[in-house]
Write a structure and sequence with these properties.
40% strand, three-stranded antiparallel beta sheet, 2 helices, mainly beta
Length: 98
């Protein structure tokens, strides 16, 4: 995988996991997705230890859902010219895209 100015190339076949973190915002469901993409290849021994109920409680969200592990089917990931591409590592567990 190679970081470019607008995203990443060489991602096909890369393994990653995602966590959907959803909350109620005045009757509308708002969700964020945390991912292991760029952090690691979502090792199964660590992935299986994630307690979604504890994660929801720890993050203050209504529900946490595991999505994955999955494998990229595309060759590259790029942001749109006007979009924001933010990589951060909350609690060193994953990266978040907004």
């Amino acid at each position: 995988m190679q970081l470019t100015e607008r995203g990443f190339t060489g991602v096909r076949g890369g393994r990653h996991g995602q966590m959907l973190l959803a909350e109620d915002d005045d009757g509308m469901v708002v969700a964020g997705i945390d991912t292991t993409f760029t952090l690691d290849d979502c090792p199964d021994d660590l992935w299986q230890t994630i307690d979604v109920d504890k994660l929801a409680a720890d993050t203050g969200c209504a529900v946490a859902v595991k999505h994955g592990p999955r494998y990229w089917l595309m060759d590259r990931i790029e942001r749109a010219a006007r979009s924001e591409f933010v990589l951060d590592e909350p609690q060193n567990t994953c990266c978040r895209y907004r």
